[in-house]
Design a protein that fits this description.
Blueprint (H helix, E strand, L loop, with lengths): L1 H19 L3 H8 L9 E5 L15 H10 L4 E3 L5 E3 L2 E6 L5 E6 L13 H12 L6 H6 L2 E8 L2 E6 L6 H4 L7 H4 L19 E6 L5 E5 L12 E5 L4 H9 L5 E4 L11 E7 L2 E7 L10 H10 L2 H8 L4 E3 L23 H6 L3 E3 L4 E4 L2 E2 L1 E7 L3 H16 L3 E7 L1 H5 L10 E7 L18 H4 L23 H11 L4 H18 L2 E14 L2 E2 L20 E2 L3
Parallel strand pairs: 1-10, 1-11, 18-19, 18-20
Antiparallel strand pairs: 2-3, 4-5, 5-7, 6-7, 8-9, 9-10, 11-21, 12-21, 13-20, 13-21, 14-21, 15-16, 16-17, 22-23
Helix pairs in contact: 10-12, 15-16
């Protein structure tokens, strides 16, 4: 037996030694080594225009995709929105969390083969911090009091407070100092910057307005399998679907999903955007919904999934979480629904008056006054659907339809509203567009009592609109902001958001969605390509075209 065994081992060893002496192509056959086809071009279609782009002020999905494709930060968000090391090799924080040392990878190069060093990182963050803090991103950057390079690979960030969202801020593109150092940073246009550190680099804009990108041989994660990517901006629905159908478009982001018919060789996914439609209660003292029992009663009596059926809204997806679903910070409160409001309102002092068919308290009528921005047609339909439900439960509902400025004036003194439908764009770099390439998922801006407007009018969309003030939440959120370890921070953030949701000052209702359609001819080595996340371009250097 032993002799047969060792003969078998020797035979197998001889086979591998023999195979390794054969030409590479023959070795692949004998050893069944998987091969990835290299080369080829793909075309990505987006509905928004693209002409200029500044990394501190990203205003559209097309700009965001362009940044992701062509530029690199110290970190990059993966398919779950979790920051992963990109240009950075490692980092560490001081015991008080206010000094964070970042070590970039050795031998980094820009696409033009110039060394990428800590001097580029310092130049980048000094440039970004020079801007007036007029957006959430620029305000956050002011937490950095100083940034210095110790040597070619080491950068030290000094903060005025320990701040874990720094890890997602690090996804900001690092800029090439040797190219931009002599020009005013405010005139920078990333679209035509032909030197970058991302997986692809800009080469030209053709006569039809499309942007051509070529594989960066010096990309930190390895040269992409694809040779080229073409970005097709400002593609309407009809044009994008036509391109998908005739295979001239590889991936298309569509704003509508109605009657969508595409070729059988394509796949699709609904991708949530970083915006939130929510029911917001005024919880300040003296207002109707300062009573948490009333907020809870209205929440439990509302079937939000029916809102979409009644309102015929297909461009939104029902959600009950503050963070993007699938993100580690996403947490929702289970709600036990009811169709009988009388016991709950009775506990809060409101009794059902059968003759008048109204809820009364000392002759005062219970009236839900719902403020809606009439310039938002989806919100108007949602509001009408909500009112229909609530009236069916015996409530008196007044829809207060307001022009944009009057609607915003509800959220400044004297805060003359009870409940409103609010669209919150949870972006960092622009108040109107909710970017995701630096997404952090924290909800502090909506619940932090420090951001409560109590004086001069301030209608920035990131303020604590409700007047919410809970010391338990405040302590939990401050703890989460101070935990740099991503896994532990996710647990702390979930706890903070859980506290806020349980108080029901804000009830998440829906997120807008867009549809991503792609050809099944593209693949990745680790398995099937699925583009069902806002961060689907993460790892695009691994995309390849299947052999035909």
């Amino acid at each position: 037996m032993r002799i047969r065994f060792w003969l078998g081992v020797l035979s197998l060893s001889s086979f591998f030694l023999y195979a390794c002496q054969l030409p590479a192509a023959v070795q692949d056959i004998f050893l069944q080594k998987p091969t990835i086809p290299r080369g080829g071009s793909i075309a990505l279609s987006f509905p928004d225009a693209l002409s200029s782009l500044q990394p501190w002020h990203v205003t559209s999905r097309t700009e965001e995709a362009f940044v992701t494709l062509t530029h690199a930060g110290l970190t990059r968000l993966d398919r779950q929105g979790i920051p992963q090391l990109e240009l950075m090799d490692r980092w560490s924080a001081s015991s008080d969390g206010t000094v964070v040392t970042a070590t970039i990878k050795p031998d980094l190069q820009w696409s033009d083969a110039t060394p990428l060093t800590s001097a580029d990182v310092v130049y980048t963050y000094v440039s970004y911090r020079a801007f007036s803090p007029r957006t959430p991103l620029l305000r956050e950057l002011q937490r950095i009091t100083d940034v210095v390079n110790v040597d070619a690979q080491t950068v030290v960030f000094h903060l005025n407070v320990e701040y874990a969202p720094l890890l997602t801020l690090w996804a900001l593109p690092i800029l090439p100092m040797h190219v931009l150092g002599s020009q005013p940073i405010e005139s920078l246009n990333l679209v035509t910057l032909a030197t970058s550190a991302g997986p692809f680099v800009y080469t030209e804009q053709d006569a039809t307005g499309n942007y051509h990108l070529h594989a960066n041989p010096h990309y930190v994660r390895g040269m992409p399998f694809l040779d080229d990517v073409v970005i097709l901006p400002k593609q309407n629905q009809t044009k994008a679907i036509a391109g998908i159908t005739d295979a001239s478009v590889t991936v298309a982001e569509l704003t509508e999903n109605t009657n969508l018919r595409t070729a059988e060789a394509t796949k699709r996914a609904a991708v949530v955007q970083n915006e939130l439609m929510a029911l917001v209660f005024n919880v300040r003292d003296g207002h109707l919904f300062a009573d948490p029992a009333l907020r809870r009663a209205l929440h439990q009596a509302t079937h939000f999934e029916k809102v979409f059926d009644t309102a015929s809204i297909e461009s939104y997806q029902n959600v009950n979480t503050m963070a993007i679903p699938g993100h580690p910070f996403a947490v929702s409160m289970p709600i036990s629904t009811t169709t009988d409001l009388q016991p709950m309102l009775s506990d809060a002092g409101w009794e059902w008056d059968a003759p008048s068919r109204k809820f009364l308290r000392e002759s005062e009528q219970f009236v839900v006054r719902l403020g809606i921005d009439q310039s938002n047609p989806q919100a108007m339909r949602m509001g009408e659907s909500l009112a229909l439900q609530w009236r069916g439960l015996g409530l008196t509902v007044d829809i207060i339809s307001l022009d944009r400025q009057s609607y915003l004036n509800q959220f400044i003194p004297p805060f003359a509203y009870d409940v409103a439908l609010v669209r919150w764009a949870n972006g960092r770099s622009d108040s109107q567009y909710a970017d995701t390439f630096m997404y952090d998922g924290r909800s502090g801006d909506l619940f932090d009592h420090v951001l409560m407007n109590s004086g001069m009018p301030d209608i920035r969309p990131s303020l604590n609109l409700t007047g919410y003030n809970n010391p338990q939440y405040q302590a939990a959120q401050h703890l989460a902001d101070a935990i740099y370890d991503p896994a532990r921070r996710a647990q702390a953030e979930q706890k903070a958001i859980h506290i806020a949701l349980s108080d029901e000052s804000i009830i998440p209702i829906a997120r807008p969605i867009h549809t991503v359609v792609w050809q099944s001819t593209i693949a990745i080595p680790s398995g099937e390509l699925v583009l069902d996340t806002p961060w689907y371009l993460y790892g695009i250097e691994q995309w390849y075209l299947k052999a035909q």
